[in-house]
C-alpha cells in the first residue's frame, strides 16, 4: 500500500503555536511520507491505493510526542507518591530498575510499555531504559515490532552504590557505544539512540565528559534531568563547587547541544536559561511528576519568554499517567495554579499544550522537519479522533465547532477517543 489518502477535518499547530484548522482536507501519503495536502477535495481528484474518509465527528491531529518517559519504571506506575524525589528514587526506582538484568522481565515490561503508549496516542517517545545494555536493546526491538517511533537510552550511572546498581566508567562507555551501534543494525528509520546520563548526582565529570565526546562523535541525542528538586540542586551545587550552576556542569562536560533534552527544569536560574538558549538545548516539562513528587510548579511561560524549546513528558512513573492527554491537562492545571498565586499571570491554554505535545515536542527533539505537524515532506504520524458519544466520556448534546472539539478532547477526553493511530503511514491502533 504505497499511496494512502486521508480525507476529513484536520487540526495541527504552526511553528508559532497557532492552530491551523482545515474543515475538510485531503492528505496524500506515499511510503509513509506526506506528499500533498489539499482543501475541499472532490471525489476522484487524487488517485490512491487506499482511501480513508473520516466519518462525522472524527478529525485528524498529529501524533503525540512524549519527550521524557522512563520505560523501566512502568511497573511502578501509581506507586510511591508519598515521597519526594531523592527518597522516591532509593525506595522505588533503583530497585525496579535492577530487575532489568533479567531479559525476560525486560521483554515483558517493554512490550507492555510500547503497546500501551501507542494506544494512548504516543507516536514518538524519548525513553530512558536502565543500566543494562541488552535489555535497553530489547526496548528498541519492541518499538520496531509494534511500529513506534522512539529514542532509546541506556542509562549511565558510575557513582558507587551499596545496592550495586552502578557501573564503571569503562563499562558505561562500552555499553553505550554498543547500544548505539546495535540500534543502527536494527535498520529501522523509527529508532534512534540517545545518550542518557541519569543526572549529575549519578555520574562523575569524567563519565559525563566522555559521554559528551561520544554524543558529538556519533552525532546522537542527549537526555538527562536538571533542576527538578531543591534538595537535588543543593546536592549538585555541593558536589560541583567549581561550577556556577547545574546547567554549567553539563555544559562543561559537553552535554548541552541542539539535540539535548533536559527533563523538568523547574528551578533554573536566569543565567542557566540563557546558557540553554545559546546551546539550543530543550526543556521537557513534566507537570504530573513535578506535582506527584512535590518538586515544584514549572513556569512554562517564563521558559517560552526566554526562547527555549519546550516539550511535554509523562515521566512515568514519577508521573501518574502514560497518556499525553492527561499530561496536557496537568500542564494546564499547573499554569492555572501559577496564575492564582501570581496576579496578572497569563496561564497556558489548550492551544498551547496541544502545540507542546505535538510540534513543540518534535522541535524539542530536533525532529521538527520530520514530525509534529501535517506538512508535505514530513512523516505521517497521526491520530484519528472520534468524539461521538459512543466513544469515551463525552456526549454530543449540541453542535460543536472543530476547535471546540479539540478543546473538549484536551480538557475532558481520553484514549477511547483516539480510535486510530498511524506512524509513518502504518496503522498501529
From TrEMBL:
Enzyme kind, highest EC tier: hydrolase
EC number: 3.5.4.3
The UniProt record lists the keyword Magnesium: no
Domain named Amidohydrolase-related: residues: 59-428
Protein name: Guanine deaminase
Record family assignment: Belongs to the metallo-dependent hydrolases superfamily. ATZ/TRZ family.
Cited function: Catalyzes the hydrolytic deamination of guanine, producing xanthine and ammonia.
GO BP terms in the entry: guanine catabolic process
Molecular function (Gene Ontology), one example: zinc ion binding
Keywords: Hydrolase, Metal-binding, Zinc
Cofactor: Zn(2+)
Organism expressing this protein natively: Neodiprion lecontei (Redheaded pine sawfly)
Reactions mediated catalytically: guanine + H2O + H(+) = xanthine + NH4(+)
Pathway: Purine metabolism; guanine degradation; xanthine from guanine: step 1/1
Any one GO cellular component localisation term in the record: cytosol
Top-rank lineage group of the source organism: Eukaryota
Amino acid at each position: 500500500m504505497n499511496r494512502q489518502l486521508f480525507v476529513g477535518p484536520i487540526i495541527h499547530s504552526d511553528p508559532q503555536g497557532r492552530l491551523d484548522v482545515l474543515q475538510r482536507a485531503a492528505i496524500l501519503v506515499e511510503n509513509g511520507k506526506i506528499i500533498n495536502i489539499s482543501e475541499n477535495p472532490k471525489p476522484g481528484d487524487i488517485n490512491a491505493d487506499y482511501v480513508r474518509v473520516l466519518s462525522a465527528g472524527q478529525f485528524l491531529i498529529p501524533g503525540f510526542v512524549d519527550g521524557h518517559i522512563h520505560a523501566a519504571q512502568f511497573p511502578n506506575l501509581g506507586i510511591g507518591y508519598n515521597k519526594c524525589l531523592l527518597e522516591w528514587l532509593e525506595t522505588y526506582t533503583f530497585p525496579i530498575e535492577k530487575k532489568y538484568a533479567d531479559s525476560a522481565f525486560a521483554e515483558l515490561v517493554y512490550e507492555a510499555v510500547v503497546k500501551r503508549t501507542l494506544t494512548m496516542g504516543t507516536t514518538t517517545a524519548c525513553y530512558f531504559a536502565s543500566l543494562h545494555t541488552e535489555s535497553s536493546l530489547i526496548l528498541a526491538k519492541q518499538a520496531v515490532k509494534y511500529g513506534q517511533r522512539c529514542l532509546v537510552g541506556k542509562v549511565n550511572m558510575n557513582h558507587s552504590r551499596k545496592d550495586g546498581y552502578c557501573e564503571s566508567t569503562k563499562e558505561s562507555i562500552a555499553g553505550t557505544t554498543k547500544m548505539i551501534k546495535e540500534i543502527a543494525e536494527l535498520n529501522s528509520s523509527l529508532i534512534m539512540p540517545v545518550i542518557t546520563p541519569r543526572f549529575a548526582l549519578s555520574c562523575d565529570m569524567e563519565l559525563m565528559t566522555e559521554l559528551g565526546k561520544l554524543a558529538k562523535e556519533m552525532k546522537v541525542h542527549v537526555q538527562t534531568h536538571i533542576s527538578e528538586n531543591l534538595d537535588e540542586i543543593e546536592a549538585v551545587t555541593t558536589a560541583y563547587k567549581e561550577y556556577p550552576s547545574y546547567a554549567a556542569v553539563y555544559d562543561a562536560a559537553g552535554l548541552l547541544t541542539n539535540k539535548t533534552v533536559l527533563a523538568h527544569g523547574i528551578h533554573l536560574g536566569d543565567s542557566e536559561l540563557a546558557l540553554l538558549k545559546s546551546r539550543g538545548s530543550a526543556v521537557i516539562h513534566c507537570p504530573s511528576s513535578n506535582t506527584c513528587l512535590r518538586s515544584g510548579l514549572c513556569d512554562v511561560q517564563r521558559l517560552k519568554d526566554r526562547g527555549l524549546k519546550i516539550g511535554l513528558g509523562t515521566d512515568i512513573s514519577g508521573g501518574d499517567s502514560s497518556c499525553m492527554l492527561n499530561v496536557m491537562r496537568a500542564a494546564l492545571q499547573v499554569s492555572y495554579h501559577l496564575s492564582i498565586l501570581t496576579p496578572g499571570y497569563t496561564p497556558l491554554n489548550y492551544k498551547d499544550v496541544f502545540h507542546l505535545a505535538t510540534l513543540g515536542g518534535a522541535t524539542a527533539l530536533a525532529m521538527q522537519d520530520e514530525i509534529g505537524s501535517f506538512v508535505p515532506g514530513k512523516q505521517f504520524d497521526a491520530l484519528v479522533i472520534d468524539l461521538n458519544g459512543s466513544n469515551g466520556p463525552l456526549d454530543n448534546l449540541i453542535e460543536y465547532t472543530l476547535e471546540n472539539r479539540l478543546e473538549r478532547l484536551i480538557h475532558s477526553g481520553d484514549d477511547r477517543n483516539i480510535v486510530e493511530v498511524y506512524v509513518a503511514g502504518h496503522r498501529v491502533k
